[in-house]
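TL;DR need structure tokens for one chain.
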Amino acid sequence: MYDDGREDLDEDRYDQAESKFKQLADMNGPQTDAALYWKAYAQNRMGKRDSALSTIADLKRRFPQSRWQKMPAPWKSKRANPRETPHIRIIRAIAI
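>> reply
TL;DR here they are.
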């Protein structure tokens, strides 16, 4: 399911990706933190900023040690890494 969700993101099918990552997060398995991260990304891409921020807050609350919630926002440095994918830059932008 995780790979299917990532494929949906790559194909700009954000509504489908959000649904898959929600299902994965609801399973509370080993990929729950990653699923929440990508769910927030999909929500942000669809213009659901409040939902995305809520999802990121849930990620931070439930997984304080997760690498997915520890990525710094790009505006905290003078320049974003040009080798980052757009996915990572956008998630960092909403993950304060």
